[in-house]
Design brief:
By secondary structure, the protein is an alpha/beta fold. It has helices spanning 3-58, 75-90, 107-118, 146-164, 180-186, 202-209, 219-222, 225-246, 257-267, 313-326, 342-358, 372-381, 396-403, 414-420, 436-448, 451-464, 470-485, and strands at 62-66, 95-100, 127-130, 169-172, 190-195, 251-254, 273-275, 299-304, 331-337, 364-368, 384-386, 407-411, 430-433. Helix 2 (75-90) crosses helix 17 (470-485), helix 6 (202-209) runs antiparallel to helix 8 and helix 10 runs parallel beside helix 11 (342-358).
């Protein structure tokens, strides 16, 4: 037998062996897929039977909001309670449920907190479903691969929510997109989402690609070509999964033009996506008088925002130092914000140390977790409202400063640039900057303006933020929700 014949014989034997191996493997794969499909259908049938039994008992459809931190008291929570209030006022024959992980309080205490913090009282009670495994979405639980860990944790938490209560309409109001396919395909629910901030964005990808060190891209990664390349691949794969999960939503609402651009590029559902600006309590600041400030002997710059790394208080202090180097008298910086935990308190200590290091300790005041009356008083006395977060998704603090009649100086990115600090009826509403030098120059320019010029900018700013009021939010939110609410069987 020739060498050629032996080679052909060997290839035939190899092909036969591979066929004998692949045939059972292929059959096994088909069998596993069939079992998985049957399992999904069985779970879906089980969950829908639970919902049908509940509907027969209650007699009304139910809308559920997934908001594990509904007692946190931030801007996202204000959106939640305003949304529920608007729906309850419009739809009297629908029940409402909130999935929460706040185990240390009762439902009545949560509602009382909403009344106390936001002056929001719901027309009717809501049912709370308390989730026991909220720790699975805590970032501290995942020191590495945090996005992936939190997303997997949200799926488990969403499964707990779904098995505890099966709604007719599910709304993710806190940004846990990976729960959407769970409720849609297993629960058989209509699903919607209100996105405050995309879990991942094209800006985050560009930061890693350009090896730019930021709070979410530490130096040891930005300084390593291999780690940066690995993180880019990880982010791209995660963005693909995130987009697939988000595209399951029947209705998508976003809080700003910046968020809209990112969600459109990731979720690719333009026909189902709309901008619904968050409700800002602008009316609470309208009684602060608008007067010329030419007789002020001391101008204060006020910053409002939690002491989180992305708020970039270091930039505020360093820019303030540059201004003081040229203008020694009659100026102070007031940093107002909340501390969520020990990490935030440690960050405040670091910022105090930076002030001492730069020699501006006596000119910078820190006010932590202040009551609203004190916040309002500080804003009333201030000349400039300061904001330095890069790519802030919206900027409720920016809106509040403008409603209070302050000359706003915000970061030239995100929501402040695209939606808030924009001309109103042809008039200027504020200023934008993006680094220490431009912030310092902008502060000096604002202070050099005549009192009459500053007053005109403040008037324009106050008039422009009426579009972010509770009433505007409710009208836009109800209009967006109407097609989805119309699908509920009553």
């Amino acid at each position: 037998m020739s060498a050629h014949d032996q080679l052909v014989l060997c290839l035939c034997e190899l092909t036969r062996l591979l066929w004998l191996l692949l045939l059972p493997l292929g059959f096994l794969c088909v069998l596993l897929i069939a079992v998985l499909v049957l399992l999904v259908l069985a779970v879906r049938f089980w969950l829908q039977s639970i919902r049908n039994a509940r509907r027969a008992r209650d007699g009304h459809p139910t809308v559920a909001f997934f908001h594990p931190y509904c007692n946190a008291g931030g801007g996202g929570e204000r959106v939640l309670w305003c949304a529920i209030r608007a729906l309850q006022n419009r739809y009297a024959d629908i029940n409402f449920v909130v999935y929460t992980g706040d185990l240390g309080v009762t439902g009545q205490q949560i509602l009382e907190g909403a009344r106390r913090r936001f002056n929001i009282v719901l027309p009717r009670p809501v049912q709370f479903v308390f989730l026991r495994h909220r720790v699975l979405v805590e970032p501290n639980l995942f020191p590495h691969f945090t996005l992936l860990g939190q997303s997997v944790g949200s799926i488990i938490l969403g499964w707990e929510a779904l098995t505890e209560f099966v709604p007719d309409l599910y709304i993710d109001s806190m940004g846990y997109a990976f729960t959407l396919p769970l409720f849609r395909y297993l629960g058989g629910c209509s699903v919607g989402s209100y996105v405050h901030y995309p879990t991942i964005s094209t800006d985050m990808l560009s930061v890693v690609r350009e090896r730019n060190p930021r709070f979410n891209n530490p130096d040891f990664i930005s300084n390593s070509l291999f780690l940066s390349a690995f993180k880019v691949v990880y982010y791209c794969l995660f963005a693909l999964l995130y987009g697939m999960a988000g595209s399951c939503s029947d209705l998508i609402m976003v809080n700003s033009s910046w968020t809209l651009n990112h969600i459109l590029s990731l979720w690719r559902s333009p026909n189902r996506t709309s901008v619904v600006y968050p409700p800002c309590d602008v009316s609470a600041f309208l009684d602060i008088p608008l007067e010329e400030d030419g007789d002020k002997k001391c101008h204060s710059i006020v910053s409002i925002g939690q002491f989180r790394p992305e708020k970039d208080h270091r930039l505020q202090i360093r820019a303030f130092k540059k201004v003081l180097d040229r203008r020694r008298e009659g100026l102070k910086l007031v940093l107002i914000g909340g501390c969520r935990n020990q990490e935030d308190e440690d960050r405040v200590l670091m910022l105090r140390g930076l002030c001492q290091e730069l020699g501006v300790g006596e000119k910078v005041e820190f006010k932590l977790n202040v009551p609203f009356d004190e916040l309002k008083r500080e804003m009333g006395e201030a000349t400039i409202g300061l904001h330095t977060m890069w790519n802030e998704h919206f900027g409720i603090g920016v809106v509040e400063c403008m409603a209070a009649g302050k000359v706003i100086l915000a970061h030239k990115s995100g929501g402040p640039k695209l939606d808030i600090v924009i001309p109103f009826e042809g008039g200027q509403t504020g200023f934008l900057a993006d680094d220490e030098d431009s912030y310092a120059a902008a502060i000096e320019h604002i202070l050099s303006l005549s009192p009459a010029s500053r007053l005109q900018i403040r008037r324009n700013a106050r008039q422009s933020v009426a579009r972010f009021s509770d009433q505007e939010f409710e009208a836009c939110f109800l209009a967006a929700m109407e097609p989805l609410m119309g699908t509920l069987e009553r």
